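Example 3.2
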Amino acid sequence: MAHPLVWRSKYFFYPIGNTSAVSLTRDLPAQEPANVLLLGCGDPRSVLYTIASEGPNSGRALDFTCCDFDPAVLARNVLLLTMAADDQPSATMWNIFFHFKLDKESHTALIDQCKKLIALSGSLQEWNTSAYAPSIRMCTEYTLTELRRHWTLYVDMQDLPNSRLGAIRDAFDRQSKENIKKFTNTFTSARSLGPLAINGLRVLSEEFRNYWKTGVTFTDGKSIAAATLINPTFVYSLDGEKFSFHYGSDPLCPFHLAALFGNSKGTVTLTEVARAARGQFKEWCSSYRTSLSSTRPPIIRFFVGEATAACRALHAYDATGTLKLGVPVAQWKTQLIQLSGEEYRPGGAPSRFNVIDTSNLEDHIGLLNVLIASVPLLAPTPTSVLYAESLLFLGKDATKEFTEHLHADPTVIGILIGLCPIDYLSGFTTRSNTHELAVYHALKADVSQFHQVTTWKAPTTGDTIASQGAILAPTFDGHQLGTLLYDIYQSLFEQETSMTFWNANQDNLKKALAASNMAHYTREAFALLLQLVRDRLRLSPDVWSEVMERFNSLQLAAWSIRSMDTLHYQDLCAQFLRYGLYKASHFQFKASRIGRLSGWETIPDLVRIILVVPRDKLAPLEHSKPEEIGTPPLHCDIFGNACHNIFNSVHVAFGRAIPMGTKSRPRVIFEEDLRGWAGDSSLVASFTAPASLLTELESPHALSIGFGVRNTPAACATLIKKLGISLRVFSARLMDESLVHVLPEPALPTKIPRTAPSYPHPEAMLTQIGESGAAAVELDEQCELINSLAVRVSVKDQQSVSLFGSSKIVPEISQLSPCVLRVALGDRVQDVAYPFPVSGSAQRLRLARKSLYIEVIVPASRSLMPDGMKLNPFPVINTGESFNTWSIHRVNLSQLPILDVNAKKLGEWLNPHVGSMMSSRELRLRKKQRSDALMFIKDTLHSIFVRSSGIQGGSVQRLFALRDEKTNNCDTVFFINDLRYDLSSHTMICDGYVLPLTKKLLVEIEQPFSNLLRQGNMVNLSVFDGEMQSWKQLLPAFVERCRTSWDHGNSCEYKARGMIPLTEEMEADPLCSCGRGKDTEGMQKVGPWKKLAPYVTRVAMSPLFAVSYLETVGRDPDAHKCSVCRRRGKPRLKTCTACKKVRYCSTECQKKDWKAHKPKCKP
């Protein structure tokens, strides 16, 4: 298994999501069909919100595959969706889905719906003939079986003996009391308010306590008193029949409440909060119900399985067509994943996806495991996108943990796997997390969560030229790549060694100790990473052999008695061999036919060892308090008098291992105890090991097989007294045939690496000189960073050969786009493409006139570096079928609530929110009046936001003109119709229109434009060096992101000229004419605007935020100094309660400063 096995002393059930809903199509072009994979899907909030956000007439085909390892989550989801399809009352659905206590009417509706579903789900064939089947599909027969089992449990719970019902109720009551006592303030649901989080903290904390006290979201006594029945959908989960509902769950988390608080004229009450959430829920369910009768009803598929296992099964089907890979659905289960042949067939369920959402799986299985599993399923199209997300904060700096979790430089990872976070390249994001930063900076030591979402795309898809075709996979020097991969390996596992752990965590020891049980990676995970890298780079066998020889040599050279890695070497070698990556030299010596292998016909390189652990031997773990031991990682080992080898890729389940076959051909069948943890069966563990370990190191009679707890600091602190210094739970002699079984381990099926994407070579790229090869990657001297990328052009063209070979002419190099450079040799040109944005201004040449080649060597680029995406950070890509805004997410303006500029205390939250766009670096540039185009753009956007909302400069202003600071020429006019909440991105948007001015247009609109200047109260905004060019690039993205009611026709200027924007010149129009005069209802509201409506194009302008994992955003309060003595706080600085602008370390300093501060102290 890619993720370590852990002892599940405490399981948490998440029937309700812990973050607000998002639109899963926010980065897809309008109308492009969406094949969406949700891993760790949880509740259906984002599925429902996506359908609602699309609107009733979007025309987009939606196909969702929802995967979760807890069938109870999916059973609840199907229950809700079928009730919505049946048009059940939204109030009843709300009660059933969110309340853990029900009134009799809601309980009856729940039971009736479950009985209906049970009657339709006897088999996949029955389900597929039901009325729900066109829109709700099952990926496996096992999925339907498990869902049906839960629906049956829900029905049968009312007939349980009073003792069991009483135990359930007591467990709920205990947790309720603990929560009420433990949580005074909770940020969980306030997170959905974004910049208004602080405004809602008090009332939402009150709502949280009320929910856990009553089990409902009602505030009136009568409704609360009527809810007396425990909701069975909160009782059953993977943990069996018990209360495992997570203590931090809040029914309001999925919903967007920013507009409620932001538009409020007074204090928001508990009743208003609940009403707003129920209103959104009703709207989402209604949208889903309406969508079922549309010409393209959405399809929602369900898949019970652990995320990485489900991904492997889907990838195997995609690569080989196999429906049954032999992968268990999850740990503690023996059921193998078998895809439904009725679903997975040509033209059936998708196995590649243009949207993959991984929820916050990163917190549970590690970011690299998420990428390793999901990247192979991402469709090779220019618009495909993957979302990764984390909530937990375990290190020293929450803002930098993302890059630490990659275990390598992001540029390196981007080139290795072909995906990169877009904000890493563009240097900004349109999704705000400034509220997370504010809470983190304010509370720091008390913060355990920091919400971080990253959007991953192929690095070349943001290039208008390179995105149009396939780019050759880069090449590496085998020695360098082997060194790089070894360093990643060390980063993953170095803290297994105690000395390294203590040295690395001196400054963060408390958190590090608590988190030491949260190991995310096994040697199998690393093998899967190498398999992904090898297949993505399409390395030749010779180069790959060099890579692995270098890796292995470093591995062996680093061995020492103080390193734990020696104990894991055989595990690593076994995984390398299983996945066809490398055969270590010791495998040339076959295991002897002795011991457990004595009667075998054929001796394999690998064996599977099965260990039966009697149930009573688990008592030290089973009888320990969960809060005491946590969830320690487990492993198996092979040990003797003089050898010890540990294996982390272990699979377990409760039941019986029944030996079958013969001595020469042994096999075992497993009979699972479906009672699981509630039963009394033995635990059966299995793992793969080299066969030679059983015969060549020691006598088989001296060897034992063990099952135990991994030696982590947390485990040592809590379990040595129970298990002894070895932390071994149980062991049996290898020769004990009643407890140990040994089977030959067959080789895994070889997966053929995918061919290059099928879309054609970019037509815009010229190849007049010769042939361009793949980019050769050179790492720095430490083999940690990309030093350069080199593309060799073999000179083939006869004219070019004559020019280059017989004269001293030096090729000229220019950069066309982030990933494409042009080589000019006389009048012959050759375009060369790189697999990552590059800095063309730093290029150098290697010329071989005799061998006839030109090598163009450039450094890789990213945000804050020259060239690369800085050439155009806001690209709109023509995919052939549609236009895609690469770095700015799409919005459906009609679905976004209007921001009321007359709301009470609007400036208190909006001003700091739009003021938080710039990083500390950009603020310094602004202060020193340094030139930076993105900083200038942000400054101008800030002016538009604060003036159009009226929070600065007096009255509300809605008409703005961009004027060139040097010439004073007016180039662009903005008409702001409304301000809106961009709810799922935690920010705001200006809904308006843009009028790019040209000399020709000014003649045509002379009269209405003159009237506008006289009557329109226009605000002139000066734009500075390079800024107008950036605005010309940005405007097409701001237009395209909100396009819903019009299409780009055949005569579209973008298509005809093959460029977006059409121009970057002053007093020229960068936009095509397709959207001109469309959706202009807002222009009709203002007299002087009306006659200009045919000439404007609708835009959605939003803040562009700095990226917190790349730059410092917002000032750490601990960095402030006292206004009087310039010292830090004692222990924290306090702000003047009147003006909130001046800080003091103590009352004494405040008194000293009062005389000077009093005249300036104004709120």
